[in-house]
Amino acid sequence: MSKLSNTYFQNDDVVFLAKDLLGKLLVTKIDDEITAGIITETEAYNGRTDKACHAYNNKRTPRTSVMYKSGGLAYVYLCYGIHNLFNIVTNSEGLADAVLIRAVEPLKGHKTMLKRRSLTKIEPRLSSGPGSMSKALGINRTHNGISLVGEDIWLEHYTSFEDKDIIQTTRIGIDYAEEDAFLPWRFYVKNNRFISKK
DNA sequence: TAGGTGATCTTG
DNA sequence: AAGATCACCTAT
Fold first, then answer.
1. Chain C footprint bases within 7 A of protein beta carbons
2. Is A61 (CB) below 7 Å from strand B?
């Protein structure tokens, strides 16, 4: 196993990271259960230039404060009253960037993931879509702000994809962001079943 | 296709 | 203090 380090997450190009994270392993050890998935879908958010980002225009609130910390932490927030959305904080202190993990392909702990999702067989909706992905891996708001180089949630090198196997397109659910809604900052693995939406 | 669900932020 | 909004999911 080869864990990703803080220097990896502190890269100043969040769009590069969103793409580069495809094929990495997201691993959790929560309630003593290990689950892991290969990252298949991501989105980049840039705090300085991007109206879709919660931290746009240097907005600092209790919720966004973790995004301003040095890269390598979890940013988890509740969306629509129900869903815990998991992001990786990137860049250096004061520069609020993050990558939203939208889907993974299950690799370890299938049984635990199925139980958490109340499903009986492996199918794309087990871990595709940011709310479902987090639920399958056991991630919730109590993990907001924790280190991703620690013992609860971490990332590992696993595989990587060539450009021809990666689709780059616009992000989902951010129509309020005006012209920035058109930025092609969503990435997913071509021909993979575990994708939230074509 | 519509409704659930609740933290968060803005307005008055 | 109240109301609008929201990086979604599930079942009709």
1. 5-10
2. yes
SS3 assignment for A71-91 = CCEEEEEEECCCEEEEEEEEC
Q: Taking 80 as the threshold, does the pLDDT of residue A155 lie above it?
A: yes
Q: How far apart are CA A53 and CA A15, in angstroms?
A: 13
Classify each residue of A118-147 as buried b or exposed e, where b means 16 or more C-beta atoms within 10 Å of its C-beta.
Answer: eeeeeebebbbbbbbbbbbbbbeeebbebe
pLDDT bucket at A96, cuts 50 / 70 / 90: very high
Give the side-chain half-sphere CA count within 13 A for A112: 22
Q: Enter the pTM of the model.
A: 0.97
Query: Quick one: angle between helices A110-117 and A130-137, nearest 10?
Result: 120
Owner of token pair 């702000």 = A145
In this structure, is the CB of residue A62 within 7 Å of any atom belonging to strand B? yes
